[in-house]
Every structure is written in structure tokens, then in C-alpha cells.
Amino acid sequence: MQPEISWKANSVVYHLYVRSFKDSNNDGIGDLQGIINSLHYLSKTLGVTAIWLSPIYPSPQVDFGYDIADYKNIDQIFGTRNIFDTLIKKAHEHKIKIMMDFVPNHTSDKHKWFQESRSSKNNPKRDWYIWASPKSNGQPPNNWLSHFGGSAWALDATTGEYYLHLFNEHQPDLNWRNFLVEKEMLNILRFWMNRGIDGFRVDVPYVIYKDPLLEDEPLNSNYMEGKHDPFDMLLHTKTSWQPEFYQLMKKFTEVLQEYKGKFMVTETWTDLPGLIKTYNAAGWKYFQPFNFSLITLPWRADIHKQYIDEYERALGDLYIPCWVLGNHDKHRVASRIGKDQARIAAMFELTLHGISFIYYGEEIGMIDGKISKKKVMDPYEKTSPGLDLSRDPERTPLQWDSSENAGFSNATPWIPINKNYRKSNIATEMKDPHSFFALYQKLIRLRKENPALSEGKYIPLFEPVENVFLFLREKDSQRVLILLNFDDKDKKISLDFKDAKILCSATMKEDNKLIDLNNFSLRGNEGYILQL
Asked: Are residues 75 and 140 in the same domain?
């Protein structure tokens, strides 16, 4: 029998990069107490229903927490396990759920497992990681590449063998073909759910399994040196999307189903058939792969319409989509498509059927920060400079107000504040009824209060004119029309909908008006949520 589910399809999850959210102890780094102090803002003012925390486990911070040294504790720079327990308790009092980042592919090289594994070839933990002998000429076992540049193999002087690291050399890959590793990692999920967390975001699960024969990967004929990420020199057919991945997703959901009301979303950069295959493999309604199409597809109405119509047909009534506009690895949406269209993107995401993830700062239209070469923090940029791969620009601290350091901290922040913070910040936005913040606040409220938007079906409609996207959300007798202009040019449209009431406009300047959509002029960069 499937357990009771407390996550809803209209959930809004706030992706909170802990280092950059709110600093409570003035060391320049965001922390758990800073989140606790901000729960009223998140729940009552903005209205989100859950928060996803970037990794907060003990870590040398080589890759800012994605190099984990202990899966069952909290890094002291963020707080303690007791403070985390308080966060869970206080968040639940605010009716906010907590998601943790689960990083199963690799650990830190400082993790006690790896320290044992590298100590000798005979150590019981040796097979917990992926080791291989050098070629006869001493070179790495094969041509596999690291996402952070160079070979994915590092030679360990102690035993004279190479260990695999698909990311930084200080992040050795676990060997999930060892059943003891699988058992321990699944128990880590149980450990945190027993403490009261509500779900997980799973980091790069599609690379967990690698070709056991360690065969070379084929060259990518489309790769252009100096233009593309060096990692794309190869086609990664041996280090990603192995058949065992789909079996593991099923095991993840089986662990979740031991509890009530839990949820998991996975980082899965793949095409539409790959997403559907992942859903089907997991076989559970409240397991979801992230849909990154709003980030990856060209910003055109016809392209998104074709994709979403097909995606909705493929999902049917079995599964719930999971949408995202930005995250800690991709440039901010307002920098990618401009601030005017970022408003349209917000309306788009938050009116689609499914759970929405908001990256911190999107609610005020934050743009990428400018990081000088001397202040680069991201190891990705340090190993592959000049290719626009740095993740620093989208990780700058949240701009709370116009005071020194944007109200984030009384100390110098770990990474520079965006220079536009005196004009663009939460305090200023909250005073403006037409601001980004006002738009996000209203969109989230409409999702909660309007049955068609919270539970209704997605109904595709034809594209009336170029670069205009419209669709219906329908629940029983209630119908809501979403009309979005993906262009900065005015559009003349004619629809058979009269006396449509504007529930929300992208510019926040026409709410509650009645309009006739027959021979209607839709201004550039404008969008409407309309009650029919």
C-alpha cells in the first residue's frame, strides 16, 4: 500500500544556497541560524512551502560542500546537528518542508572511508572506491575525463594505483557495484529521514555507475577546442546512464516508501525520453527527475510549447512534473534572457502543472555577479578558465537590503556581493507594488488559492501569433488562461474569450481588469493569468 503523501503538485520549493543566504554569526558565510531567523520571510512573506539546502555536511569545502567528509553530521561553519534539528522543528512549525542535498557519487578524499581505502590494496574499504592499475607506460587506465578538467584518474603514491574522480581530484568516486557501499548509502537516507527531513535532491545520480571494463570513451566529432568545455571532447557513454542507474532509482523510492510523506528529486540532464524512462524506472508518483528544459531550450514560445505539450502527454496522470528556471550551476535566468522576460519566465514556471523550484534571489530578479580573476572561488573556473564555466556569478549572497554587504553579513562575504545591491534588494522590492518580488508573491499565492492552478490539468492551445504561448489550466468548472508574450514586440491576437478577468499581469499594473481577447493587443514583455 502506498504511504500517505503530504507533498502537493502546487508545492513551491526555495533552493537555498546556504553559504550565500544569511550569515548570523558574522564570519561572512551563510549558516543554519541565518535560515532559522528568515523562516518568517520564507513562509509568510514569500509563501514557499519547502526549502532545499545545498550540502551542509562536514567538508574541506574544495567544491563547497559537494566533497563530503561525513554524511551524518553538520559542518561547523553552518552550525551543529542540534541547530539543524531546531531548523527542522521551526520550519515545520512554519509549514515548510526541508530537503537535503544527497551526494552519492563521490566523497571527499578526507572521508575516513577513503583514508582507509588508500592505505593499502588489502584494506577492507579498498573496493569502496574505484581503483585501477596504470597502463604499462604508467599512464591512466583509460581516457576518461574529469568535469573539472584533465584526466578523471589520480595516481596515489601509497599503492601505485589510480583512483577515479569524475569531478575534482579531491572527490574520489564511490564504487556502487560494492553492495556494502549501496547498503551504507541507503542507510544514510534513512538516518536523515529519521531525524525528520522531508526529502532529498540527489546530485548527479546518472554517473554513479561506470563501465566495469573501464573501456575508453569515443571522441566527440562536434567538439571545438577553445570554444567548448574540454569535458565535451568525449562522448560519455561509459561514465553515465549505465543500465544500473535505473535499478538504483527504484531502490531509492523503496527506501522513501518506508516513511510517510517523503519526496525525492534527481539531477538528470537528459532529453524527454530519458526523463520518462527515469520516471518509469522509479515507479513512484513522488519521485521526480528535474526537468531542466526551461534552462536549456532556446527562449522561444514555439520550442517550449512543442516540448511541454509532448512532455505532458507522455506523463499523463501517472506522474507530476518538476520545473526549475535556475540553480547554483547555471547562470541566473535574468542574466540569460533579460529582466523583462525573466518576469514572463516566472509566470510560465509558476503556472505550469507540477512542483516549482525557485533559486534564491529569483524573487527579486537577481542577476549574475561579476567576479574578478583574483577573487574566483570555483574550482571549475580555475581548471578551465575563460570558457564561461564559472559558477561563482550565480552564487553571490542574497541581497537583503541596501546596507553594507547587502544585509547578508556584518563581515566581508565569502564571495563578493553583486554591485547592484543598493538598488536591487528585498527591502526595496517589498515597497514596490510592481516589483519582481510582488510578482513572485502573487504567483505563489495564486497557486495555493486557485484550484485550477493548484490541481488543474494542463490543456494546450494553438499558438495565435509568433512567439506567444498560451495554455489553459482547468479544474472542474474553473478555467484559467495563461497568455505569455515571449517577445519585446506588441502582438495582435484574436481569441474567443470575452470578459476575461486579469488575475495577474507580468508588469503587475493591470490586475483585476476585465478584458476582451477578441482583436486584443498584447504588449511586448507582458503576460497574463486570466480567469475565464
From this structure: no
Spatial separation of the C-alpha atoms in residues 294 and 448, rounded to whole Å: 22
Tell me the per-residue pLDDT of 260-294, one tens digit each, with 9 for 90 and over: 899 999 999 999 999 999 999 998 878 899 999 99
Q: What was the pLDDT predicted at 2?
A: 41
The active-site residue out of 75, 169, 173, 267 is 267
Query: Of the residues 63, 203, 394, 429, which is catalytic?
Result: 203
Catalytic: 267? yes
Domain span including residue 135: 112-164
Rounded to whole angstroms, the Cα distance separating 305 from 470 reads: 9
Closest CA to 6 of 109, 98, 77: 98
**pLDDT-wise least confident of 106-110, 381-385, 425-429, 520-524:** 381-385
pLDDT digits (tens, 9 = 90+) for 381-411: 888 888 888 999 999 999 999 999 999 999 9
Residue 261 shares a structural domain with residue 409: yes
CB burial string 319-351: b at 16+ within 10 A, e below: bbbbbbbbbbebbbbbbbbbebbbbbbbbbbbb
- 394 within domain boundaries: yes
427: CATH: 3.20.20.80
